[in-house]
Amino acid sequence: MGSHNTDQHKHSIATFAALKTAIANDEEQLVKDLLANEPMQELEKSYLIDLANINNNQTILTLLKDIPEI
Questions:
Q1: Mean pLDDT on 57-69
Q2: pLDDT at site 50
Q3: In this predicted model, what pLDDT tens digit does every residue of 17-26 receive, in sequence order?
Q4: Contacts of 42 (CB under 8 A, 6+ apart)
Q5: Which of 2, 6, 30, 36 is geometrically suited to a Cys-Cys bond with 22, CB 3.0 to 4.6 A?
């Protein structure tokens, strides 16, 4: 059981890192694919929205704002 949690946590960290890169590079489709309407923690969501505000990409901002929080 612990191994599954560790694998899931590593996947979560990798996905978050990929999201940051995709947002910074204005890769709308990749952001959409990585989000996959999975809920995320409020702090992570807020950070990604702040990052997206730098590029002012409204499509990415909308995708992020629509993600449910856990």
A1: 96
A2: 97
A3: 999 999 999 9
A4: 69
A5: 30
Token digits of residue 12: 């979560």
Amino acid at 43: L
Residue identified by tokens 């990798």 is: 14
CA distance 29 to 52: 14
Distance, CA of 61 to CA of 26 (rounded, Å): 11
The DSSP line for the chain is -HHHHHHHHHHHHHHHHHHHHHHHTT-HHHHHHHHTT--B-HHHHHHHHHHHHHHT-HHHHHHHHTSPB-
Q: What is the pLDDT of residues 12-48, one digit of tens each?
A: 889 999 999 999 999 999 999 999 888 999 999 999 9
